[in-house]
Every structure is written in structure tokens, then in C-alpha cells.
Amino acid sequence: MTTAIGEQNAKTPTLDRLTPEEFKSVFRKHPAGVTVITLRDQDRMVGFTATSVISVSADPPLLAFSVAGQSSSWPPLSKAATIVVNFLTAAQANLSARFATSGIDRFARGGWSLLDTGEPFLQGSGNWVRGRIVQRTPVGSSFLVCVEALSSSVCDTEQATDQDALVYADRIYHKLSTRSAL
């Protein structure tokens, strides 16, 4: 029998847990691919940097990511039907920083277009996936958002230049390329 987080089983002793800072320090050392989630909220474009994107299922094609409940992007995301996940390249570290900055118009400096379906996407992204949100689950102080992939654009790496993946670890951007393979 499983026990929900925070519940105590009468036979199980209470276990200590990491503080939020201890937990964050563990994940700072865990490299993650960098994406920017973009969506449209009526006439306003919304976007934020996310390093929590994971593949959930190939059949049906599902992915998921988490977003903090106190994020300024959460209210529009909580009612959005579709989004675009932009997988950033090493040449786009500046976009990641821009979309991670609070209190600015993240789309003001350009570098984006609208898909025929109306969602914004970032020009020059290595790959992107347009998807329909199928589930939003509150987890702790965040939400886990599950998305069914509807369409994508995959960069042809043989014809592209500077398409190395952007990775974030220990508060520093890194480039992941075929030349870094072990």
C-alpha cells in the first residue's frame, strides 16, 4: 500500500526530509536540457524557461513538465488548451535567460513567430513540439502538466549549423554535442 506525501502511516516512523535548499542543491548538479514553453493567452504571448520537460510515453506521444504555482505564467497556463515546447540550442542561451527573467515582456525583442494554429514558437529552436494539455496535477507548490504531442518540427542536424543542445547544470549553461560523447 502506498502512502501519499505528507501522510503518516501509524506503523511507519516519521522520516526526516531535505530542506528546500538541500533539495535544490542536489538538482543543481543534475544536468537538464533547456526548453521554453510558449502559449497564447488571447492576444498576449506567454513564455517561460523550463528544464523539467520529460518524455512520458511514445504511444500515445506524451510529455510533461512542472511549473511553480506562484509563477506569473501559471494563470494563463492553467486555462490554455495548447502550448509549444521549444527545445533550445546552445546558440540560444540568451533566449533561455530572457524567458527566465521575471517582470519583462519576454517577446518584445522578437525572434518568434506564430504557427498556423496560433501558438507562438521561437525561431531557430533546434526542435519544437506543439501539444494539447491533457492534465494539470497539483504537486506540492507546483503543477505537473501533461501534454499530448500533436505536431513537431525537427531540425536536420546535417544541414544545420550550431544545433548543439543547450544544457543547464550548476547554474551554468553548457553545450552538448556529438563531440562530447564518451
Automatic annotation (TrEMBL):
<feature type="domain" description="Flavin reductase like">
    <location>
        <begin position="27"/>
        <end position="175"/>
    </location>
</feature>
<dbReference type="InterPro" id="IPR002563">
    <property type="entry name" value="Flavin_Rdtase-like_dom"/>
</dbReference>
<protein>
    <recommendedName>
        <fullName>Flavin reductase like domain-containing protein</fullName>
    </recommendedName>
</protein>
<keyword id="KW-0560">Oxidoreductase</keyword>
<dbReference type="InterPro" id="IPR050268">
    <property type="entry name" value="NADH-dep_flavin_reductase"/>
</dbReference>
<dbReference type="InterPro" id="IPR012349">
    <property type="entry name" value="Split_barrel_FMN-bd"/>
</dbReference>
<dbReference type="Pfam" id="PF01613">
    <property type="entry name" value="Flavin_Reduct"/>
</dbReference>
